[in-house]
Specification:
Elements: H1 3-18, H2 27-34, H3 36-56, H4 59-79, H5 84-94, H6 99-104
Helix pairs in contact: 1-4, 3-4
Bound molecules: phosphoribosyl ATP.
Phosphoribosyl ATP binds near residues 26 and 71.
Family: Belongs to the PRA-PH family.
Keywords: Amino-acid biosynthesis, ATP-binding, Cytoplasm, Histidine biosynthesis, Hydrolase, Nucleotide-binding
Subcellular location: Cytoplasm
Length: about 110
């Protein structure tokens, strides 16, 4: 397993373990206590903050916001019982398929 996948696998396992923790002691548990809607909202907020950092922040700020976004996305996937491996497998499936070619092959409305 390469470094990227090892980091994500560790984070996924930590998130799964913290879901049922005390919400007073765990941010992951607190998010789950607030429900799927709150988790999804956080992903949206972190996405917007990542965009702002990309357009007007430093590289360090962009790294920080991107980490927040990936973390909250992993919490969201876990809340829906979707293993991150499925996302990686989907990216693998798309490997080598140009985004332009994929779009051109879509059925027209
Ligand atoms: N990677 C992260 C991570 N990244 C960001 N965050 C938290 O995500 C939150 C995002 O910041 P915000 O200001 O948007 O949050 P907020 O003020 O609570 O937001 P609102 O209540 O206003 O919606 C902060 O509380 C950050 O500390 C994280 N919290 C946890 N982890 C990982 O998850 C593990 C388990 O964490 P706990 O569940 O807290 O033990 C940790 O050991 C880490 O590995």
């Amino acid at each position: 397993m390469d470094q990227t996948n090892a980091t994500l696998a560790r984070l996924e396992a930590t998130i799964a373990a913290r879901r049922s923790a005390d919400p007073d002691a765990s941010y992951v548990a607190r998010l789950h206590a607030k429900g799927l809607g709150k988790i999804a909202q956080k992903v949206g907020e972190e996405g917007v903050e990542t965009v702002i950092a990309a357009l007007s922040g430093s590289a360090d700020e962009l790294v920080g916001e991107a980490a927040d976004l990936v973390f909250h996305l992993m919490v969201l996937l876990g809340a829906r019982d979707v293993p991150f491996a499925r996302v990686l497998a989907e990216l693998d499936r798309r490997e080598g398929l140009s985004g332009l070619a994929e779009k051109a092959a879509r059925p027209r409305d």
